[in-house]
Amino acid sequence: MTGQALRHRVEYVLLRIVAGVCAILPEVVADRAGAALGWVAARVGRPRWAVVRDHLRRAFPEADERWRRDVGRRCYAHLGAEAVAVFRLAGMGPREVRERTRVTGLEVVEAAVRKGRGVILLSA
Question: Structural domain tally of the chain?
Fold first, then answer.
């Protein structure tokens, strides 16, 4: 096994452990844990940090470096919280997902389907 293959396996096992722990934690605790993991990733692991900094520099050339660093770190925290939400969603049954989902404009989708037309769905 190559070093990269071993690293990928270790990352996978760690991801499964995090997903399992997040599934049993209360939702608010899991969300905060996810944000904390993202915060840590932005400061310690810094995956793709140079790319993040470059993109923020290009998108916000008028902003100072401190502001861009803060935005980048907050983005990582948000990404961590959203990753935990996805882990938790994957462990929910169809009924719980439906209870947590609000659909607006369904009549537009149904009308398009009746006419044999396609639709593009967006979620927020």
Answer: 1
